[in-house]
Design brief:
There is one protein chain. The protein has about 290 residues and is an all-alpha fold. It is built from ten helices and two strands, in the order ααααββαααααα. Helix 1 runs antiparallel to helix 5, helix 2 packs across helix 3 and helix 3 packs across helix 4.
């Protein structure tokens, strides 16, 4: 991957690797399939190299690269998705430091001769009429099959299609490995550290909050347990204090009830006579018919 401006988050790097992984699996399956179907070719041509083995060589290289990428991404997700963790894993692990980049380099080196062999022996070949070494010796036209397989045979078109498939697989594998052969360089040049306060940081802070709450709950439970133990150790002294407090509260309640009854009695008594009533007893008598005077 080329140089960047350091404006990509680590998640983009991981997503790109999953994209490369998908194509690696496709190329691996295609290379094995094309080579397997090409094993039974009737080698009736003049090309000396059985190019069907090229796919069997490419497949294990792609498999090793796939395993190394998967290991790195799995460890990154386990430790936390950040640029720091990516750099640490790519520097300090065998898969990240050696196997990943070297499998890309070996794969690119093999894709070049593999595509050339498949192209010459199965695609860019055919019937060569009147070869130079035979044209001067006889008047009859001489032909030569320059392919590895019998170009005029029953399955010639199938073999040519399989050869084309091998060439395409080698070329696309070369491009895939070329754009992902320097993971360390990509991380240093293209990826920026996650800014503070983003979604990942908040998600990472939630376990800390939960841990703090759990610690607080545990401390409260421990304090409650200690208080209970202290109360149990206090024994009869605490019981006596509780009884004394209850007696004081009961006496206070009785005193308040007594004051409330007195206030009710005072509120039931009739109001005293006014000044006019006291100066005119008749009015007082009229006002109070129940009272009789001798």
């Amino acid at each position: 991957m080329g140089k960047g401006n350091g404006d990509h988050p680590p998640s983009k790097f991981i997503n790109d690797q999953w994209f490369f992984q998908l194509f690696i699996l496709v190329f691996l399956v295609c290379s094995v399939t094309c080579s397997s179907l090409s094993i039974g070719m009737d080698d009736g041509g003049s090309f000396p190299y059985p190019y069907s083995f090229t796919g069997f060589v490419l497949a294990p290289i792609l498999l090793v690269n796939f395993i190394s990428r998967s290991y790195v991404m799995t460890v990154v997700h386990r430790k936390g998705l950040s640029k720091k963790n990516l750099l640490e894993i790519l520097k300090n692990t065998v898969f990240g430091q050696h196997i990943w980049p070297w499998s890309c380099k070996v794969g690119m080196l093999w894709c070049i001769p593999g595509s050339i062999l498949s192209g010459i022996g199965g695609v860019n070949c055919g019937i060569d009429e009147n070869p130079d070494n035979n044209s001067s010796t006889t008047d009859a036209p001489k032909v030569r099959n320059t392919c590895y397989y019998e170009i005029e045979g029953e399955h010639s078109e199938l073999y040519r299609g399989l050869a084309i498939g091998l060439v395409i697989v080698h070329v696309l594998s070369f491009v895939n490995l070329l754009f992902s052969n320097c993971p360390m360089h990509s991380v240093q040049e293209q990826i920026k550290e996650d800014p503070r306060g983003n979604t990942v940081s908040r998600a990472n802070n939630r376990p800390a909050v939960a841990y703090t709450a759990a610690v607080s709950t545990t401390s409260a439970a421990a304090s409650d347990t200690n208080n209970r133990q202290a109360s149990a150790s206090g024994g009869s002294s605490n019981d006596m204090k509780m009884k004394t407090t209850m007696q004081k509260l009961e006496a206070r309640v009785r005193e308040l009830e007594s004051r409330e009854r007195q206030m009710q009695v005072v509120s039931v008594l009739p109001p005293p006579p006014t000044y006019n009533d006291s100066m005119h007893p008749d009015n007082c008598t009229a006002a109070h018919p129940d009272n009789t005077f001798a």
